[in-house]
Prior knowledge:
Elements: H1 13-23, H2 30-40, H3 43-56, H4 68-80, E1 84-86, E2 107-111, E3 120-125, H5 131-146, E4 150-153, H6 159-166, E5 172-175, H7 189-195, E6 200-203, H8 215-225, E7 229-233, H9 240-250, E8 254-258, H10 268-275, E9 279-280, H11 284-295, H12 315-324, E10 330-331, H13 332-339, H14 343-355, E11 359-363, E12 366-369
Parallel strand pairs: 3-4, 3-7, 4-5, 5-6, 7-8, 8-9
Antiparallel strand pairs: 1-2, 2-6, 10-12, 11-12
Helix pairs in contact: 1-3, 1-4, 3-14, 5-6, 8-9, 12-13, 12-14
Amino acid sequence: MDIKTSSTTRLTDAERIDRLRLIRSDNVGPRTFRSLVLHFGSARAALARLPDLARRGGADRPGRICGEEDARAELAASTKLGISLLAPQEAGYPPRLATLDDAPPLLGVRGALDALMRPMLAIVGSRNASGAGLKFAGSLARDLSDAGFVIVSGLARGIDQAAHRASLKGGTVAVLAGGHDRIYPPEHEDLLASMLEAGAAISEMPLGHVPRARDFPRRNRLISGAALGVVVIEAAHRSGSLITARIAAEQGREVFAVPGSPLDPRAAGTNDLIKQGATLTTEASDVISAVEPIMERPLALREPDDEPFDVEPDSGDRARITALLGPTPVLLDDLIRMAGASPAVVRAVLLELELAGRLERPGGGLVSLS
Length: 370
């Protein structure tokens, strides 16, 4: 059941340092990183242009650019802890995660890297799970693990930890919201240590990063992105698990939901997912039969949607596009249509605004001024 990839690319040490410097610089997220490298040809060339781009976007002063010394120190500290910082084209980077538009340019991975190259299924759910929910999560994770799948989840209390524990032998992957040295919740440090022999842990955050509330939705896109599909077991309305399910659907992943009693608020979200078209799931075969056809399709790294912005926007373009933006998110496609400019020009202006710290990307192809 292993996923085969044709990629044998390996970054040079200099390229890895340049990529680390760029992604650790202010206002540079995964999508911005990709746009910069696509346009300028390399992370090193992009680093040299950051101050000018931020100035064009209206920044009073350039944001912090990560220095080479800091990047080398992070790389050395990561290596000391057994963490590899991998690019999407390198072996050990989860292949399906590499296909995302916002795949981390460098992913911190540790443990059994071969587990990250195998087919994954995500199991997520309530932190305040019922006994029945915990039992079912363990049973489902065990059955899927026995069928050859790696179980991926978020190391949280409740459903996550039950799924991890039940699939330790076959391999399970924890996606961390903080740095590898800032495990949350702290009581799961021993669980994570036991996972690393046959499984792995991944994070896009730097060492020392303590997870904040806004980091968990970012983490959730990695859980779903690495997997063929996401199984949700017990989720109340407005829960983080429903965010994961929504992101999974946006990523083109399969969404599965375990039904529950209409009298239990912990099942309200999962029951709603079923109404919205998620696959009703009561046993492992429901999941396996849905993902087997997907596994037979060849998997290749996604070609970037962005086009290089060979023509730089003029002051009129910047003023017109910026004026169309506000605190209310607007679809990028609608912005391009209303601006009457080429997609390349609009993306260039958005990139400048983002590097100036003036743009928000709430997801789903939406943009707004911050």
